[in-house]
Amino acid sequence: NAGVTQTPKFQVLKTGQSMTLQCAQDMNHNSMYWYRQDPGMGLRLIYYSASEGTTDKGEVPNGYNVSRLNKREFSLRLESAAPSQTSVYFCASRRQVLNTEAFFGQGTRLTVV
Amino acid sequence: QQQVKQSPQSLIVQKGGISIINCAYENTAFDYFPWYQQFPGKGPALLIAIRPDVSEKKEGRFTISFNKSAKQFSLHIMDSQPGDSATYFCAASATYFGNEKLTFGTGTRLTIIP
Questions:
Q1: Helix/strand/coil for B1
Q2: Dihedral angle of Cα B54, B60, B61, B62, to the nearest 10 degrees
Q3: What is the pLDDT of residues B47-64, one digit of tens each?
Q4: Cβ separation A42–B6 shorter than 8 A
Q5: Do the chains contact at B43 and A41, CB–CB below 8 Å?
Q6: How close, in Å, is residue B19 to chain A by CA atoms?
Q7: Which of A50, A99, A107 sits opposite B32 (nearest CB)?
Q8: For residue B98, how far is the Cα from the chain centroid?
Q9: What is the mean pLDDT of chain B?
Q10: d(CA B104, CA B13)
């Protein structure tokens, strides 16, 4: 039972480069989320998707785009990476039933130089 | 705007002692309050959660106390053990137009010393 799988685990980008972080879940969850974790800031929501074909902005969406490719997959794209986007990124999924547990992936540590 | 405020930022407790982490919120639309535990290099994992219709929930050594009128909730870890050393996040969930959003506090790094 893989749960939520993120790739890659580590990435170093140069300023201005683009990349896509991949996330897939095998729990048949409707809702999926992307968070970033920074020291002293906790987990901040970037984007979320309540169901296939829908996406909405979270607290810190600037500089990111997302795609809900199908029910399993939710990708996060950085079009032109900036040093301020250096962070650990977590994908999570949740059943679309009120007040249920969110399951997190292992995270992607991204460094932009 | 931090919707969920968490304190302290770090906490050191002796083995066998009680660890207490506090959170406060403003948004009265929040209706679910989970705590997540995160070990280094791992994603957060649900530890315990409470709904606002109860004032306390206990699971083993972990207890959530909830004060709806004060809009505060706290995590108590009894008989703290070195294996409890981790970062703890409180969170709150509200539903907007049918979509649930989970908002996290800033985290508390807990260290249990022998």
A1: coil
A2: -40
A3: 999 998 899 999 999 999
A4: yes
A5: no
A6: 19
A7: A99
A8: 25
A9: 93
A10: 23
Q: Is-contact A66 A74, C-beta < 8 A?
A: yes
The answer, for A90 touching chain B at a CB cutoff of 8 Å, is yes
Number of other residues whose CB lies within 10 A of the CB of residue B40: 7
Lookup: tokens for B29? 């639309």
Chain B residues whose beta carbon lies within 8 Å of the beta carbon of residue A45: 101-103
Backbone angles phi, psi at B68, to 5 degrees: -65, -40
DSSP state, B10? E
Among the partner-chain residues B34, B42, B100, the one whose CB lies closest to the CB of A106 is: B42
Is the Cβ pair A106, B46 closer than 8 Å?
no
Closest A-chain CA to B47: A101
pLDDT in tens, A24-37: 999 999 999 999 99
Q: How far apart are CA B104 and CA A110, in angstroms?
A: 21
Checking if the pLDDT of B1 tops 60, the result is no
Asked if residue B26 lies in contact with residue B71, where contact means CB atoms within 8 angstroms, the answer is: yes
Beta strands B72-77 and B19-25 are antiparallel
Closest-CA residue of chain B to A50: B99
Dihedral pair phi/psi, residue A59, rounded to 5°: -75, -35
